Structures are given as structure tokens and as C-alpha cells.
């Protein structure tokens, strides 16, 4: 079966008269129907940019400069802007990090739902109302009818995120890109939102890309994960396989730095140093300056190489292999 | 809300009291109006009669109390030169001034808003540079200079535009207006444009700055990610947010516009209160000057109150009279 979404060798760049910065390079991944892909990596690794490259909403001067974005097997990069608009919200939806900022502060909830509905359907006022109430009800908002007339600031953060989720799912999209939708919320609310999105997507067979810098969140949610570093995918595969036996030294470092409940006292490991700036990447593997296994061979960029039929890693000396002396 | 308005009205009364003190004593310092009434052969007895008639023989504090007492009954005294109540004269001339100021306000919005929004959307284009240069010029050139240049160019050289008066007016029963005749609009165009320039420059700047800020917010990205058409994104989701500061500033400036109308009315011989004020100052017509100033302050205060109320309608986060922010 064709995956819902495939990225093939995607490159996204910021092109200014003075310089060109490639923020995403050779990015390939795929998500199938009903599958949850966790996209992890530290701040600035290009997770959000990947999301915006898919629905082509990168802020200028950024744009996709190479590769393909295939939706149900068809490359959508050649589509015109009006054609692209018809996909946004209808086929590909997005949920953002900060529910304070996602909803327009000066428009009523009802108006914002209405605009999202009318973006793709012709509906009467009565139909809009029915659909809006049903959508709010579905994401567990009490008294949805009364909520239509309220403004975002009158709702709590968790409620706001539920409203945003309701809006994103109005048209039963095939793919939802969730960009750290729980990061700004209290831990208890985080769990609720996580379960809500997971449940809704499972029920409808929606493909879900869950972006997070928090490996712990992704571990309990995703089917597969892709680890990003400095604009590239460095490791990709089924979540359990990778957590049990990471192949990339960076993934191993991420896993080691996650606190494990019930195991107190053990020192948390940290990855030394920091991710290099995009303007200042080393010639080969971008992780080399921080990597204990780096050798001279790491001075050329390793390709994303299959480990088995389900996994791939971008490393010259993946864990589990000897480092030549 | 009611409590808030009462508080504001009390504040306004305080401002008005302070204002009457300043104006009354200020005006009494300059010149001696007795000589307007005294003919050259008027002897001491005749002068004393005039002084007594005008109430100028009383101590100044008693003059002030009489003035405030009359003011409380809506009586601002009779114009020395016209011999009719000053308030009458003002109300007779005020419509022409308000018409001019209103036309300038509309012009500033209708021209300035699209220009500012355009410049905000494409901040680096040459169009934006042109718009910003225009706003800088409009802001910094003196109003009287622009007025005179326009008269020289369009009235004297080209002979396209009339430079004096209101043109044909239509009597609406309670007020005369030149907005409803072609000749009236023809006369109104140059003074209104001249008067609108500073406001226009401000609208351009505020709209541009607001647009640049708003376009990067998550709620605009979210609206786009939901497929909301660009026209609606700009025309409702963005516009409503950028209007908030514009309404505030324009509301506060509108009083200043009425004050600036003094200059424009003098240049274009527009028969409004501004021109009347200049004439009154020339002959030291104290009651008329004082009445004018009090009316202007009254308008300022009322406008500010209206702006606050309008502001709360635009921005649901503001609740008048305290409460949740
Ligand atoms: N206008 C721009 N010009 C140049 N580089 C940019 C621009 N905007 C973003 N970038 C770069 O793109 C990279 C990817 O940013 P992105 O927001 O996708 O990171 P992220 O992984 O989502 O991080 P976070 O966890 O902080 O959200 C960053 O390194 C950033 O420096
Ligand atoms: S390629 Fe070399 S430097 Fe990069 S992660 Fe692998 S071992 Fe480390
Ligand atoms: Mg991000």
C-alpha cells in the first residue's frame, strides 16, 4: 500500500542574496495510514521546518529547493498555491506547540471554526453550527454550544489546545503534523491531550507525525521514530528496536539523557557540546565534534544506510560495530 | 462598565476644571480688549462704562467665578465682536470643521491602510520603499507648506482645484454639508488631503509594523495551515489584530486633527471654527477664544472615552472596569 506521505531527498534552504543556508538536507521518511511517526531531535535540528516544508508554509526566504513531497504517491511540490491551499486542512492538518498563540485572540472560537469549515466546504449557518458543536464535543469540551461565543483568552491552555485539535481535524485529514502540541502544557494535561490525539487518529486511520524534543513522550506514543540532527535524519526505525538498541551515537546519547522513573541516584548522561550552527557545519558527519567514536573516516558524510529491512542509520561506525583502531 | 464610565466622566470634569483655570487666566494676561470697543474719542468715563459693562472692573477671581457659574449653565458669554453668544458662533462653524476632519480621517484610513498593509507584506520590495518614503515626507513636511504648494500647483498653475471656501452645500435641516455636492467635494479635496497627511503617515506606519508582526504569529500560520483563503486571513484574521493600535492612535489624534484644522482652514479659507479662532485672536475676542478652547478640550475628552469603548469592542481581552485581563 502507498504510504500517506513520503519525503524523498527533501532539501529546504533559506536563500538570500548574500548566502544560501540549507536547513534540511537529503530528508527522506514515510508515514503510512494509521501510523504514528515520532520526529525527535534537539532545538534547531529542523523538526518544525520539516512540518512546514510538507504543507509549504515556510516563512520566506525559506523554500524547498530539492526533493519530493509525495501525498498518496503524488508529488505535491509542483502544485500551484491555490491547489496547495485546498490540501491544507483538508488532507494535511497541523497542530502547534503553544495553544496560547495558535488561536486568534480577537476572533470568537465559533468564527475560527467557521472559517476553517468554509475553507473547504459550502455550508449553511445551521450546518456550520452543528458541525462546530460536534467537533468541540468530540475533543471533550464541555458545553460546546456555549463555547462557540467565547474568545480564546476565556479558556484554559488545555481547552485551547483541544479547540485547536478540533479545528485541525474538522475535515478528517489523512495526515496530521503535531508540532510539540503538549510541550507548553501541565504534565497532567499533557497526558490527556496525548491520549486524545492518539485516540482520534487511531479511530480514523489518520497518519500522524508527532514532533517532539522529548524522547520519553514519543516512546510511549509512536510506532516508529526518526531522529534528526542538524537538518538530517540520522536514525530511523521502529520505536522499540531503536530504544532497545540505538545504532547512532547521538540517539544513544539522547536515550541515556532521559530520566527513568524508579531509577534514582544513577547519574544522567549528557551529550557534551552543542549542535553546530547550520552556517558552521563540519565537512562530514555533523555529530563528529561531539562523538566519542569519531575517526578520520567521519570526515565524509555517511549516507543513511539500512541496518535491517525496518531500520536505517547515518553513521560510519554505528553502535554494535567495532570502531577500527 | 457603568462604574468605569462614571469614573471617566469624573476625570473628564477634573480635566475641564483645570482647563478653564488655565484658559481663563492665560487669556486674561494678554492684551486689553477694552480698546476694541472704545472709539478714538472715548474719554475716561466712557472707558469706565465699557469696563463695567464687560465686568472687567471686578477682581479677577470674581470674574472667574462668574465665568464658571455661567459655564455651568451652558453660557460661555457673548462674543465681544459679534455680540452673540460665543457658543452659537462655534456651533455654527463647527460642522464645517468636523466635516473637514472627518473627511481627512476617512482619507487617511482608505489610503493609508492598504498602503501600510502592502508595505508590511512585502517589506523589501521597491513598492514598500516608495510607500515608506511617502509616509516620511508626509510626516515631516510642515502642513502649511504642503497646503500652500498645493494651492500654487493645482489652483494657480494648473487651475484644476478651487482654493477658497466650501463650495456648494446641501442643507440637511440640522446641518449644512458639502459632502453631498460635486462642487463641495471638489472644494473639500485639497484641504482634507492636506489635513489627512499626518494621520495617513501614521496609519501607514502602524499598519506596516502591525502586519509585519502579525504575519509571523502562530495564529496566522494556523489559519493558513487550515486552508483559510489568503483574502480572509489578511482581511479578518490579521486586519482585526492590527486595527487595535490604529484605532487607539487615530482616536487620540483626532482631537489634534481638529486643532491642526486651524492651520488648514486659514490656508484654504475654510469657514470652520479654526479660522474663526484665528480671527478671534486677532481682535482679542476673549469669550470666543475661551469658548473655542473649552469646546476642543471637551471634544478631546469625549473622544478618548469613545476610543476606550471602541477598543474594548475590538479587543475582547480588554474588559472595561477591571476584571480579568
Ligand atoms: N529565516 C531563517 N534564515 C535562516 N535559517 C533559519 C531561518 N528560519 C529558521 N532557520 C533555521 O532552520 C533550522 C530549523 O529550525 P526549526 O524551527 O525547524 O527547529 P526545531 O527542530 O523545530 O527546533 P525547536 O525544538 O526549537 O522547535 C534552525 O537551525 C534555524 O536556524
Ligand atoms: S559518523 Fe562518525 S562521527 Fe558521526 S556519529 Fe558516526 S561515528 Fe560519530
Ligand atoms: Mg520547532
Automatic annotation (TrEMBL), chain B:
GO terms for cellular component: plasma membrane. Pfam families: BPD_transp_1, BPD_transp_1_N. It is found in: Cell membrane. The chain crosses the membrane at residues 12-31, 100-121, 133-156, 188-207, 242-268, 288-314. InterPro entries: BPD_transp_1_N (IPR045621), MetI-like (IPR000515), MetI-like_sf (IPR035906). Residues 94-311 form the ABC transmembrane type-1 domain. Keywords: Cell membrane, Membrane, Transmembrane, Transmembrane helix, Transport. GO terms for biological process: transmembrane transport. The keyword Zinc does not apply. It is a multi-pass membrane protein. Belongs to the binding-protein-dependent transport system permease family. PANTHER family: ABC TRANSPORTER PERMEASE PROTEIN (PTHR43163:SF2), DIPEPTIDE TRANSPORT SYSTEM PERMEASE PROTEIN DPPB-RELATED (PTHR43163). This is ABC transporter permease. It comes from Pseudoponticoccus marisrubri.
Amino acid at each position: 500500500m502507498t504510504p500517506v506521505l513520503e519525503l524523498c531527498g527533501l532539501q529546504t534552504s533559506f536563500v538570500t542574496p548574500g548566502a544560501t543556508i540549507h536547513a534540511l538536507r537529503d530528508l527522506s521518511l514515510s508515514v503510512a495510514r494509521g501510523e504514528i511517526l515520532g520526529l525527535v531531535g534537539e532545538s534547531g535540528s529542523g523538526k518544525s521546518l520539516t512540518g512546514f516544508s510538507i504543507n509549504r508554509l515556510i516563512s520566506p526566504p525559506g523554500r524547498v529547493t530539492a526533493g519530493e513531497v509525495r501525498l498518496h504517491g503524488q508529488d505535491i511540490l509542483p502544485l500551484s498555491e491555490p491547489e496547495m491551499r485546498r490540501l491544507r486542512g483538508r488532507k494535511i492538518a497541523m497542530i502547534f506547540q503553544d495553544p496560547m498563540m495558535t488561536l486568534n485572540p480577537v476572533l470568537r472560537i465559533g468564527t475560527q471554526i467557521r472559517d476553517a469549515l468554509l475553507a473547504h466546504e459550502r455550508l449553511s449557518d445551521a450546518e456550520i453550527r452543528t458541525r462546530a458543536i460536534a467537533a468541540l464535543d468530540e475533543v471533550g469540551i464541555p458545553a460546546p454550544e456555549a463555547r462557540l461565543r467565547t474568545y480564546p483568552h476565556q479558556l484554559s491552555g488545555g481547552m485551547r489546545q483541544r479547540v485547536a485539535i478540533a479545528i485541525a481535524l474538522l475535515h478528517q485529514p489523512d495526515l496530521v503534523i503535531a508540532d510539540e502540541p503538549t510541550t507548553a502544557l501541565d504534565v497532567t494535561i499533557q497526558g490527556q491531550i496525548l491520549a486524545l490525539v492518539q485516540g482520534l487518529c487511531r479511530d480514523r486511520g489518520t497518519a500522524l507525525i508527532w514532533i517532539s524534543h522529548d524522547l520519553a513522550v514519543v516512546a510511549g506514543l509512536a510506532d516508529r521514530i526518526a531522529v534528526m540532527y542538524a537538518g538530517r535524519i540520522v536514525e530511523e526505525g521502529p520505536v522499540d528496536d531503536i530504544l532497545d538498541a540505538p545504532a547512532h551515537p547521538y540517539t544513544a546519547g539522547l536515550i541515556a539523557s532521559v530520566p527513568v522513573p524508579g531509577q534514582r541516584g544513577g547519574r544522567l548522561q549528557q551529550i557534551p557540546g552543542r549542535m553546530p550552527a547550520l552556517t558552521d557545519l563540519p565537512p562530514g558527519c555533523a555529530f563528529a565534534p561531539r562523538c566519542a567514536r569519531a575517526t578520520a573516516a567521519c570526515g565524509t558524510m555517511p549516507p543513511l544506510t539500512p541496518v535491517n529491512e525496518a531500520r536505517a542509520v547515518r553513521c560510519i561506525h554505528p553502535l554494535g560495530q567495532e570502531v577500527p583502531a | 462598565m457603568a462604574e468605569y464610565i462614571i469614573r471617566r466622566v469624573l476625570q473628564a470634569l477634573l480635566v475641564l476644571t483645570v482647563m478653564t483655570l488655565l484658559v481663563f487666566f492665560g487669556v486674561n494676561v494678554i492684551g486689553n480688549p477694552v480698546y476694541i470697543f472704545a472709539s478714538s474719542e472715548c474719554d475716561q468715563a466712557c472707558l469706565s462704562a465699557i469696563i463695567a459693562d464687560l465686568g472687567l472692573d471686578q477682581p479677577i477671581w470674581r470674574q472667574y467665578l462668574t465665568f464658571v457659574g455661567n459655564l455651568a449653565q451652558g453660557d460661555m458669554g457673548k462674543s465681544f465682536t459679534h455680540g452673540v453668544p460665543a457658543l452659537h458662533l462655534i456651533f455654527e462653524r463647527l460642522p464645517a470643521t468636523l466635516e473637514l476632519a472627518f473627511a481627512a480621517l476617512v482619507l487617511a484610513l482608505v489610503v493609508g491602510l492598504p498602503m501600510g498593509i502592502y508595505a508590511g507584506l512585502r517589506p523589501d520590495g521597491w513598492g514598500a520603499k516608495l510607500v515608506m518614503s511617502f509616509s516620511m515626507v508626509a510626516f515631516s513636511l510642515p502642513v502649511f507648506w504642503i497646503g500652500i504648494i498645493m494651492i500654487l500647483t493645482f489652483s494657480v498653475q494648473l487651475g484644476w482645484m478651487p482654493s477658497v471656501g466650501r463650495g456648494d452645500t446641501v442643507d440637511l435641516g440640522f446641518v449644512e454639508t458639502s459632502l453631498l455636492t460635486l462642487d463641495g467635494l471638489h472644494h473639500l479635496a485639497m484641504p482634507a488631503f492636506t489635513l489627512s497627511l499626518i494621520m495617513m503617515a501614521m496609519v501607514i506606519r502602524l499598519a506596516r509594523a502591525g502586519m509585519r508582526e502579525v504575519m509571523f504569529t502562530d495564529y496566522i500560520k494556523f489559519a493558513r495551515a487550515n486552508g483559510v483563503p489568503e483574502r480572509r486571513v489578511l482581511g479578518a484574521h490579521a486586519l482585526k489584530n492590527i486595527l487595535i493600535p490604529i484605532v487607539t492612535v487615530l482616536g487620540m489624534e483626532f482631537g489634534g486633527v481638529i486643532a491642526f484644522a486651524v492651520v488648514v482652514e486659514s490656508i484654504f479659507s475654510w469657514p470652520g471654527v479654526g479660522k474663526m479662532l484665528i480671527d478671534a485672536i486677532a481682535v482679542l475676542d476673549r469669550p470666543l477664544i475661551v469658548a473655542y478652547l473649552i469646546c476642543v478640550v471637551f471634544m478631546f475628552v469625549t473622544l478618548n472615552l469613545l476610543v476606550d469603548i471602541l477598543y474594548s469592542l475590538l479587543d475582547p481581552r480588554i474588559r472595561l472596569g477591571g476584571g480579568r485581563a
